[in-house]
Amino acid sequence: xxxxxxxxxxxxxxxxxxxxxxxxxxxxxxxxxxxxxxxxxxxxxxxxxxxxxxxxxxxxxxxxxxxxxxxxxxxxxxxxxxxxxxxxxxxxxxxxxxxxxxxxxxxxxxxxxxxxxxxxxxxxxxxxxxxxxxxxxxxxxxxxxxxxxxxxxxxxx
Length: 157
What we know:
Oligomer: single chain
Number of domains: 1
Number of helices: 3
CATH architecture: 3-Layer(aba) Sandwich
CATH topology: Trna Endonuclease, Chain: A, domain 1
Strand order of the largest sheet: 1-6-5-4-3-2
């Protein structure tokens, strides 16, 4: 697929900082929303420019949502965020199947088609998009709810 690299790169950040809130009682929906907030802040801290969040498309060819659309240099990067509680089985990355990746690629191309004339995108990419990359950020929340989650960033899936 266009925009993929031959190797996978994983960045792992384990935080041992106390959490400002106890997340052990949060619903899975709230855990997911908080995971997306943390992932967006993490990407910004790493120098990415977040362009869009929770973009939805319901077309005849593909339906779904892009959690985060960001720029790094002249690459358009779609980020799928998966948040889980530790000890509940499965790693966050396990939820991103081949079918999910294919759907995310279609959604990313649809997003680009919809936003290609967007002034913000054109401002940051005056020469256009050089490539597209799909990343996954997995957040593993400790079960006690008092420590911030571990963040794994898998690039070019």
